[in-house]
Amino acid sequence: MSLPRLAGLKQSGELSLLLPRGGLGPPFFALCRGLAQRRVNIVFLAHDRSREQASVGLEPEDAPQALELARQIALDHGLGPPELIGQTTALTLFPLADNPALPLIAVGRLAEAGVAPLAMATSLAAVTLLIGHRHLATALEALTRAFHLPAGVSPPQARVKVVQSPFFRRTD
After folding, report:
1. Between these two residues, 22 and 48, which has the higher pLDDT value?
2. pLDDT for the residue numbered 78
3. Residues 147/14/116/105 CA torsion (nearest 10 deg)
4. 90 contacts 15 by C-beta, under 8 angstroms
5. Burial class (CB in 10 A: 0-12, 13-18, 19+), 133
6. Whether the domain at 6-13+89-164 and the domain at 14-85 fall into the same CATH topology
7. Distance CA 20, CA 26 (A)
8. If 119 and its partner were Cys, which of 94, 113, 130, 158 is the partner (CB 3.0–4.6 Å)?
9. What tens digit of pLDDT does each residue of 114-157 get?
């Protein structure tokens, strides 16, 4: 099987992952309203309907107030406590063409390397995987090798850098 070609890979800076309880119902909407009122930016959002679980990526400095708000909302709605996972990074893959198999291929290659994403979100233009820092180097190695990307993805503290595939380079 030939792998899909990628335009590149982007690595975010450090993120914290908030896992509130209650899916996308009223508690989640209350959390979003509360975060907006506090001017907290949601960097990443994914939802797993089968588990009724939302995954909310936040800047680390916003995580404490978001966690406190999520705890209060959970109490108000009789839900279990939210979970906060620190030190995560979003890795975003940009396919060259529509390829619905890209998320499965990426997750499969990560699994072969012993890495399970903490969360994943997809769109028609990209696949974003949240990876814990403990597994970041392994994940980057597995993805760059699998999709034939050049080395040189920036470290998390460098915020964002796009590494382009040799298949898709501007020549102008």
Report:
1. 22
2. 94
3. -20
4. yes
5. middle
6. yes
7. 12
8. 130
9. 999 999 988 878 899 999 999 999 999 998 888 877 666 544 44
Domain boundaries, the chain: 6-13+89-164, 14-85
Q: Which residues pair with 93 in a beta bridge?
A: 9, 127
Give me the pLDDT at residue 136, please. 92
Listed in sequence order, the residues at least 6 apart from 141 whose beta carbon sits closer than 8 Å to its beta carbon are: 113
Closest CA to 87 of 42, 39, 135: 135
pLDDT digits (tens, 9 = 90+) for 28-56: 999 999 999 999 999 988 887 666 788 99
Contact between 106 and 72 (Cβ < 8 Å) = no
Distances (CA, A) of 40 to 21, 146, 159: 19, 35, 18
3-state class (DSSP) for residue 164: strand
Look up residue 120 and give its amino acid.
Answer: M
Decide: 82 and 18 in contact? Cβ < 8 Å.
yes
Encoding tokens for residue 115? 């890495």
